[in-house]
Design goal:
alpha/beta; five-stranded parallel beta sheet; disordered C terminus; binds calcium ion
């Protein structure tokens, strides 16, 4: 999952990004409002952490524009402890949660987990799809109740595909949600991650179908007892 932090205090932004990266998120930082607005126009993120006191364009205006465009990504606003008014305005403008500075990183992380899993449509930290389970808090996945040995990248990839199970996810979307800016990730590299993850899912009736020219789709395999069925035909 890819989080955008909009925060002009470098110490706070650095601390936040370190702790979120350690928790397995891809994180990018912007330090002023116009830049935040441009970044949000250019791609979608899984979560925006938005300081309301940003230079050039206020956080509230960034949020207003984002929601005016119909973007539904979760937004956690950061406010000064005494600014009840801006907190209320932020929530009214479509923020999903807020933290008043200063705050404990552990609480922020818990709120980030809650917001991202709500966006996944899950009200618990474990998302399931057939025999597959992904524990967002513990960052572990299992298949048929057996733990899967996944790299951080594979775990991230699985999360994105699981979030959109049954729907096609393009390579561009995978890059947007998996990778930080400046990371050189080629389409070939994405294919390699998908290939590895696909191998690790072979034990269950879950497959990652390649939809030529469009991307990938995580789905329950059609009846494995029918070797001539579409599952066999679609396998590369
Ligand atoms: Ca600020």
């Amino acid at each position: 999952m890819h989080i955008l932090i909009a925060e002009d205090d470098p110490v706070l932004a650095d601390g936040l990004s370190r702790s979120l990266r350690a928790a397995g998120y891809a994180v990018d930082i912007v330090t002023e409002g116009e830049q935040t607005d441009s970044a949000l126009l250019a791609q979608s993120f899984d979560l925006l952490i938005l300081d309301l006191g940003l230079p050039r364009l206020s956080g509230l205006e960034v949020l207003r524009r984002l929601r005016a465009r119909g973007a539904k990504m979760p937004v956690l606003i950061l406010t000064a402890a005494d600014s009840v008014d801006s907190r209320v305005r932020g929530l009214d403008l479509g923020a999903d949660d807020y933290m008043a500075k200063p705050f404990a990183l552990s609480e922020l992380e818990a709120r980030v987990r809650a917001l991202t899993r709500r966006a996944l449509g899950a009200n618990q930290s474990v998302i399931r799809h057939g025999p597959l389970a992904l524990d967002l808090a513990g960052r572990v996945a299992s298949l048929n109740e057996q733990p899967l040995d996944l790299s951080a990248r594979e775990l991230g990839l699985l999360g994105i595909l699981l979030q959109r199970a049954g729907r096609v996810v393009s390579k561009e979307q995978l890059v947007d949600h998996l990778c930080e800016w400046g990371e050189e990730v080629s389409n070939n590299a994405i294919e390699v991650y998908v290939h590895r993850l696909r191998k690790k899912l072979e034990a269950g009736d879950i497959r990652i179908a390649t939809i030529r020219g469009l991307g990938y789709c995580l789905e329950r395999a059609p009846d494995a007892a029918d070797p001539a069925g579409p599952a066999a035909a679609a396998r590369p």
